[in-house]
Amino acid sequence: MGLEVESRPSDSPYVERVWRSRSDDVGRMTSIASATWDLVFWEHGGQVSAAVQGPETRASPAPVPEYATFFGISFATGASMPHFPMERLVDGNVPIPGTTRRSFQLKGSTWRLPGYDDAEWFVRRLVREEILVLDPVVAAVLGGRPAGVSARTVQRRFVAATGLTQGAVRQIGRARQAAVLIQEGVPAPDVVHRLGYFDQPHLARSLSRYVGRTATQLAGRASPEPLSLLYKT
């Protein structure tokens, strides 16, 4: 009962995660802040729909159609489709027209719907046709490698590729990591020390803003509504 979510990592540098879910007797969830964006397909009441879901800067309630199935690709931070300007996608989404059980429309072409087990072939085609790109500067910074450009250029490239500042990407990622650690049973004081929070109130504010839960709620996993995808990186 509720929202069942399954996900897997990917060996593609363009993909953060591939996921699928099913809703059963649930009408709302808490959508956690995320620095990534998703291409999402869902079926509800016999109708198939698709949308590009942009990065989210804070936790917020989100409606969930009951008895629906979902499939999504969460793209790596720094990957983007230039014809979808990232700054316009932040905290929003763009519906994709012409979606059926077999195909959908993207940049003037008809594409076969990808699936949970073969999402990478679809991503490879996107890259081959230069619809999906990965900013090497953002990828270098996130990978702990020298970017070879000025700090101002790094900031500009982050905003262009992600719609977010480098600081926002870091804060969202840290809050998500903190939530996973707390769910795994790590005490809040240890999370503060491990992730570099100033103190427990600082951690509490971060969790409230980006995850929409307190440390106690995360540790007990008792909540009136489910959370969106949260995983260990």
Describe this structure in words.
By secondary structure, this protein is of the alpha+beta class. It contains eight helices and twelve strands. The strands form four sheets. The protein has a six-stranded antiparallel β-sheet with strand order 1-2-7-4-5-9, covered by helices on one side. It has a two-stranded antiparallel ribbon with strand order 3-6. A hairpin with a 2-residue loop joins strand 10 (103-106) and strand 11. Helix 5 crosses helix 7. The longest helix has 18 residues, at 166-183. It is globular and about 50 Å long.
The proportion of residues in beta strands is: 25-35%
Q: Largest sheet, order of strands side by side?
A: 1-2-7-4-5-9
| Number of H/I helices | 8
Main beta sheet: 6 strands, antiparallel
Shape: globular
What order do the helices and strands follow? Answer: EEEEEEEEHEEEHEHHHHHH
The strand count comes to 12
Query: What is the rounded Rg?
Result: 18 Å
Which secondary structure elements does this structure contain, and how are they paired or packed?
Layout: E1 2-8, E2 15-24, E3 28-31, E4 38-44, E5 47-53, E6 60-63, E7 69-75, E8 79-80, H1 86-89, E9 93-95, E10 103-106, E11 109-112, H2 119-128, E12 133-134, H3 136-142, H4 151-162, H5 166-183, H6 188-195, H7 200-210, H8 215-220
Antiparallel strand pairs: 1-2, 2-7, 3-6, 4-5, 4-7, 5-9, 8-12, 10-11
